[in-house]
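Example 3.2
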Amino acid sequence: MSQKAEIKEKKKNSALSIFSKEYKYEGLILLVLAIIAIVLGSLVLVGEYSSGESGLIVNEDIWLIGAYPALVAWILVGLGVIGVSLSVWPFFKPSIFEFKRVTWLTKGKLLANSITVLIFVLIMSLFFFGIDFILRYVISLIELIAGLF
C-alpha cells in the first residue's frame, strides 16, 4: 500500500473514531439535555391546554414554533424520552447477558417454595400474635397490681 493510501485510511479512521469513541460525561450531558427537553415540552403543553393559567405560552410570531406549539412540544418530549433511554441504556446493557445466564425454577419447585414461604409467614404471624397477647395480659396485670397500691 502506498504512503498516500495509508494517510487517507488513517484520516478516514480518525473521522469515524469521533463517532465511535465514548467520552467521559456524554451520557450525563445527554441525560441533562433530555430532561430539559421533556420539562420544556411539558411546560409548553401545559400552557397550550390549560388556557394560559400556567406553563409556557409560545408567541405566535415565532417562526414555525409559534404556528405549531403543541407539535413542537410533543417532538421535544419525544426526543427527551429517546435521550433518556439512550443515556441509561449503557447501565442496563450488561444485565441482558446476565439474564440469559439465569436458570429459572420449574413450576413445581416454584410452587413448593411459595408454599414454604406462606407457611413460614403464617407461623411467624401466629408467634407474634401470641407474644402480643401475652404482653398485653402481663401489662394489664401490672396495671391492676399498680392500681391496688
